[in-house]
């Protein structure tokens, strides 16, 4: 995105620790007979901002959906914040309450107001008192710059506003890690910027983020690692500068020429 | 264009012709008739035809209604009064009013009890049916079944009180053991409830006359009251059972899933009337002799089973209509299955299902008249049996069945209007 490009990259203040947030080790996944993810090894450190890109069908979304157990992996090991992801529902719920996720289609709850969308999980999962949950919600709604919409229903908001609410809803759980599954793909062009700005702000505060996105401007500006996936494998990963200016594999070059070439 | 002046262009109008009234044939009633009733020759013919049909209907109906006899002791008396006129014999309604409403065996002195229960039904129903009332009033709804049972069947007040205390004990046992697994706390709740019921049942059997009102047998219930009892109880029971069946049908556990599928498919594949015969006749062969398993209770179980299978399918449609993203969003926030269902999925799925649920409810309410086939005297049973069979009123079909139809129409139309109001009330998607 051009708008994101114009901001000066300021990665110096974005510190990455050597504490591990997510550890994926030899993970494989099949949909029936179709081998979607092959031998994925990935270590994400706390505070890292990772952008995952690749052609459609390459398994990017499936990869991050495996991290919070929305998809079940069949082989290998995923550890999130020290908790091993297995089929135990309690473990999965524990991981999910630490990992926030934003979807392409926002997936706000249409029968609840914006405020209720944001307070629901803190009240029921974290057992936060209602008043406190509402204060937290208002804090994050202010942060995504829509506190005045708190009592409206999702259907009354624009796409960009809805996605920002979805981000606020995740943040209300005070997650340690945020996953973004193509958060701007379903938006009209003029609304992409407002969502990206919110995500940039989040990155600058040191949130650990994994974003599946085609916004290469965003990747250049905030990512400290770009991962390129094709056919269910991680083909290449590198720092954004090196990744964009100096791709190693042919597949990456081809992909980059297609999305940057015009 | 603001600098265009009359001098510089060929023609610019500067004064406007005043408005004139439209021609008389283009305004008011004449225009409406011309445009809506007689726009073309075929339409004019249709209009005249419709007017003729309306005339024929009204010329038959109005004398029957307006010239009707409301005070007479028998059909022959009616005939004497109307003479050759076409007036209906509505006297049967006034003379047999109590039988139509309460059945023929319900003690006259106790009519106030079902009436009170009927009035309280609205008080108790309001908190559950009107989303704007404070949630705290739901306690009235929770109390109502016990109060209504006591009012209708009578006996010592200890019976409904101990039943209520049993439910309360179960609830608190469940709450107290909430932190354990769901199955364990459910077990604890059942044990606590059964214990209280057992003790309460024993106390009630010892103190039969403690604050007792006259006991009324199930077989003495009848008339429209019986339809109301069956309809209200079965609709309110079949909704929760239908929800459980619909969720069970989606379960990942094969046992639960196939039990639910088998139940739904079996019950839906069988006519209600056969289930009622099973309740009435066949069950008696399987139960030990001398067991007195209340007939109304048996019928309630059968109708509830029947309706919940239908409601389960309606709700399954609502569940299927929700985008997968709603499930995923609920999951990704860390809500567990029960929370996700209760807070996210069911409120939306039920909202989608309202028209279907109401459809089943209305159908079920009218189906309660089928109990007349198994010799229970609901309003249709009363008409078919005691009233039409009596020498006084033999032959008064139109008035009686018309009255029954009117009763059901008023109730069902009310339910339908409520559901449409609720749909509008819950609509949040619009801008």
UniProtKB/TrEMBL annotation, chain A:
Superkingdom, natural source: Bacteria
UniProt keyword terms in alphabetical order: ATP-binding, Nucleotide-binding, Transport
Domain ABC transporter: 22-256
Molecular function terms from GO: ABC-type amino acid transporter activity; ATP binding; ATP hydrolysis activity
The keyword ATP-binding is assigned to this record: yes
Keyword Transport tagged: yes
Cross-referenced CDD domains: ABC_HisP_GlnQ
Coiled-coil regions, chain positions: none
Pfam families linked: ABC_tran
Family: Belongs to the ABC transporter superfamily.
PANTHER family according to UniProt: AMINO ACID IMPORT ATP-BINDING PROTEIN (PTHR43166), PHOSPHONATES IMPORT ATP-BINDING PROTEIN PHNC (PTHR43166:SF4)
Protein name: Glutamine transport ATP-binding protein GlnQ
Automatic annotation (TrEMBL), chain B:
Membrane-crossing segments per the record: 44-66, 111-130, 150-174, 181-204, 224-247, 259-283, 295-315, 370-389, 395-415
Pfam families the UniProt entry points to: BPD_transp_1
Domain of life according to the entry: Bacteria
Name this protein carries in UniProt: Inner membrane amino-acid ABC transporter permease protein YhdY
A Gene Ontology BP annotation from the UniProt entry: amino acid transport
SUPFAM superfamilies linked to this entry: MetI-like
Membrane topology type: Multi-pass membrane protein
ABC transmembrane type-1 domain boundaries: 224-419
Location within or outside the cell: Cell inner membrane; Cell membrane
A GO cellular component annotation in the UniProt record: ATP-binding cassette (ABC) transporter complex
One of the record's GO molecular function terms: transmembrane transporter activity
KW ATP-binding (keyword) present: no
Coiled coil: none
């Amino acid at each position: 995105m051009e708008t994101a490009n114009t901001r000066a990259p300021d990665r110096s203040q974005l510190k990455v620790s050597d504490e591990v947030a997510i550890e994926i080790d030899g993970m494989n996944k099949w949909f029936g007979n179709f081998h979607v993810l092959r031998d994925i090894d990935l270590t994400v450190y706390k505070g890292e901002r990772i952008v995952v890109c690749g052609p459609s069908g390459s398994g990017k979304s499936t990869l991050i959906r495996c991290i919070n157990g929305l998809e079940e992996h069949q082989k290998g090991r995923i550890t999130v914040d020290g908790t091993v992801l297995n089929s135990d529902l309690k473990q999965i719920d524990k991981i999910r309450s630490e990992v926030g996720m934003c979807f392409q289609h926002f997936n706000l709850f249409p029968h609840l107001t914006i405020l209720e969308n944001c307070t629901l999980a803190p009240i029921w999962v974290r057992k936060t008192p209602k008043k406190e949950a509402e204060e937290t919600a208002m804090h994050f709604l202010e942060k995504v710059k829509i506190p005045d919409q708190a009592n409206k229903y999702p259907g009354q908001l624009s796409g960009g506003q809805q996605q920002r609410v979805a981000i606020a809803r995740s943040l209300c759980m005070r997650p340690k890690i945020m996953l973004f599954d193509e958060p701007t793909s379903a938006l009209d062009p003029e609304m992409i910027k407002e969502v990206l700005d919110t995500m940039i702000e989040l990155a600058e505060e040191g949130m650990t983020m994994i974003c599946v996105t085609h916004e290469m401007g965003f990747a250049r500006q905030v990512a400290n690692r770009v991962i390129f996936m094709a056919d269910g494998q991680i083909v290449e990963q590198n720092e954004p500068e090196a990744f964009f200016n100096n791709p190693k594999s042919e597949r990456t070059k081809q992909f980059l020429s297609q999305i940057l070439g015009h | 264009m603001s600098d265009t002046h009359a001098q510089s262009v060929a023609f610019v109008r500067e004064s406007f012709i005043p408005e004139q009234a439209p021609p008389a044939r283009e305004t008011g009633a004449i225009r409406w008739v011309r445009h809506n009733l007689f726009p073309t020759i075929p339409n004019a013919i249709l209009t005249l035809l419709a007017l003729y049909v309306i005339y024929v209907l009204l010329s038959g109906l109005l004398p029957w209604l307006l010239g009707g006899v409301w005070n007479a002791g028998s059909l022959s008396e009616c005939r004497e009064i109307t003479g050759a006129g076409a007036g209906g014999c509505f006297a049967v309604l006034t003379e047999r009013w109590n039988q139509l409403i309460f059945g023929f065996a319900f003690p006259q002195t106790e009519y106030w009890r079902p009436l009170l229960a009927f009035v309280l039904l609205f008080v108790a129903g309001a908190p559950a049916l009107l989303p704007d009332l404070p949630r705290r009033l739901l306690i009235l709804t929770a109390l109502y079944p016990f109060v209504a049972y006591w009012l209708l069947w009578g006996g010592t007040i200890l019976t409904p009180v101990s039943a209520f205390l049993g439910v309360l004990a179960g609830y608190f046992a469940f709450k107290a053991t909430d932190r354990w697994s769901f199955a364990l706390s459910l077990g604890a709740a059942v044990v606590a409830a059964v214990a209280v019921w057992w003790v309460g049942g024993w106390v009630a059997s010892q103190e039969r006359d403690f604050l007792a009102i006259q006991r009324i047998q199930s077989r003495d219930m009848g008339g429209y009251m019986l339809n109301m009892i069956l309809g209200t109880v079965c609709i309110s029971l079949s909704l929760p059972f239908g929800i459980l069946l619909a969720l069970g049908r989606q379960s990942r556990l094969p046992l639960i899933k196939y039990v639910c599928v088998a139940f739904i498919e079996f019950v839906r594949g069988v006519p209600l009337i056969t289930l009622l015969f099973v309740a009435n006749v066949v069950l008696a062969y399987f139960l030990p002799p001398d067991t007195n398993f209340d007939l109304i209770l048996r019928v309630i179980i059968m109708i509830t089973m029947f309706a919940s299978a239908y409601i389960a399918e309606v709700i399954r449609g609502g569940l299927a209509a929700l985008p997968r993203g709603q499930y995923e969003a609920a999951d990704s926030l860390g809500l567990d299955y029960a929370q996700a269902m209760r807070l996210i999925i069911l409120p939306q799925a039920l909202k989608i299902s309202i028209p279907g649920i109401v459809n089943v409810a209305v159908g079920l309410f009218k189906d309660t008249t089928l109990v007349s086939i198994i010799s229970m005297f609901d309003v249709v049973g009363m008409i078919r049996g005691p009233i039409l069979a009596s020498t006084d009123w033999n032959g008064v079909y139109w008035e009686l069945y018309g009255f029954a139809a009117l009763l059901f129409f008023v109730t069902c139309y009310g339910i339908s209007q409520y559901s449409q109001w609720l749909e509008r009330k819950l609509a949040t998607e619009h801008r």
